[in-house]
Amino acid sequence: MIFNMRANIKYSIFGIITLLVFWQLLVVIGITLNDNYVYTQIAPINSLEALWHLFFEEKFYNHIFASFYRIFCALFLALLIGIPIGLIYSTNEKIKNVFYLPFQILRMISPLSWMPIAVLIYDSWDGAIIFLIVMAAIWPIIFNLTQGMTKIDIGWIYVAKSFKANVIDQLRYAIIPAIAQDVITGLRLALGVSWIIIVPAEYLGVTSGLGYAINDARDTLDYSKLAALILAIGIIGFTIDSLLQSLNSKFKWN
């Protein structure tokens, strides 16, 4: 296990070095072809230096908190709406047949396509952004829950009833263990797509959030900071996804 861990670290370091070399190569090509030294601002050394300075800026953490607030509000609403819909959709064949096509059509619409409607419906920019994220996050929750429900063996329910288990016990010992992994996978996918949507969504008139910070860096021509913010978004997203993946692995026994 220690050997595997060391091997993984070694490969990860090699991957990061490869990325940095490729990144620097693209910068050099950009300067050579366009004779524009603005590219030097987004070179790895300058971007990493700007990232280091970001860690000591209070504004940076305020932007992270603002983005997290919008994402978690949206995920809460997506779970609140998506879980009941997923349960009904997966347990009633007639409802599933009726709503399969509408759900698939809605699922394939880009969440950002709803932007004009969101602005029209909501008085606040936060409300519009949360709506866009909900429209992105709800579908992985519904369809992964549906997939999880198909794994439930009706025999488990009969066995539970034979032991006079009540509804709560049936949920606790038969249903939830069967669907937990798929629900967490759905949440992981929902969080991933939310993290992607939040940046362009925060171009909508708000004055906080990582998307706003990127837009502001572009407007002020601070390209090193812009590249640093992009790196920070990737690092934060990877960290969150890794935590959910670790949580998901606890349910692999199913």
From TrEMBL:
InterPro entries attached to this UniProt entry: MetI-like, MetI-like_sf
Biological process annotations from GO: cellular response to sulfur starvation; transmembrane transport
Keyword Membrane: yes
Residue spans crossing the bilayer: 12-33, 68-89, 101-122, 128-146, 189-214, 226-244
Superkingdom assignment: Bacteria
One Pfam family per UniProt: BPD_transp_1
Matching CDD domains: TM_PBP2
Membrane topology type: Multi-pass membrane protein
Subcellular compartments: Cell membrane
Gene Ontology CC terms: plasma membrane
Record keywords, A-Z: Cell membrane, Membrane, Transmembrane, Transmembrane helix, Transport
Residue stretches making up the ABC transmembrane type-1 domain: 64-244
PANTHER family with a match to the protein in the record: ALKANE SULFONATE ABC TRANSPORTER-RELATED, MEMBRANE SUBUNIT, TAURINE TRANSPORT SYSTEM PERMEASE PROTEIN TAUC
Protein family membership: Belongs to the binding-protein-dependent transport system permease family.
Protein name: Nitrate/sulfonate/bicarbonate ABC transporter, permease protein
Source organism (scientific name): Aliarcobacter cibarius
Lineage: Bacteria, Pseudomonadati, Campylobacterota, Epsilonproteobacteria, Campylobacterales
